[in-house]
Amino acid sequence: MKISGIETFLVAPRWLFMKVSTDEGISGWGEPVVEGRAETVRAAVHELADLVVGQDPLRIEDHWQLLRRSGFYRGGPVLSSALSGYDQALWDIAGKARSVPVHELLGGAGQRAIMVPALRHTGFALGFLGCSHPILLPTVSRAGPRVSAATTATTIDTAHGGPRVRK
To answer: What's the number of CA atoms in the CB half-sphere (13 Å) around residue 45?
Structure first.
């Protein structure tokens, strides 16, 4: 399996996503973004593409070291963000290639469920957290922490994939 291409997708107002494709049809996704500098990070992602296209996507650590140390100037938020996007996408490919969730490649789930505090917004959707069925949290007052509704939280059950709202 070889990396065959890199694509980036700018999503208004400030997000950037990247897709790493392979010659076997497996693709991985990453999010390389520095808020307010999405176009700059996009340029960095494409500039680094020459170093990984044609290479084995499962050699994640080798790619990380090469991308991190390839230039004279190392680090900084733009390069680190581009590198992070590649890292996420390559781990995504590795999980798909082995038909296992990425957390299994990294040693397994650390816990069965995680608590996510409700944000004090009106009807905050949790679909972006990877839920197969996004839920809408109840409306929470902006009056402050003394309002009992502000204690509403959701539990993402990592073992069974379903979000639950609890008070």
So the answer is: 31
Say if residues 4 and 25 touch (Cβ distance below 8 Å).
no
d(CA 122, CA 105): 37
CATH architecture label of 3-103 = 2-Layer Sandwich (3.30)
- Determine the residue type at 46: H
- Side chain identity at residue 157, one-letter code: D
pTM summary value = 0.67
For the chain, which residues make up each domain, given as ranges?
3-103, 113-166
Asked if 18 and 10 touch (Cβ cutoff 8 Å), the reply is no
Distance of CA 143 to the CA centre of its chain: 32
Of the two residues 36 and 2, the one the predictor is more confident about is 2
Residue labelled with tokens 């990984």: 52
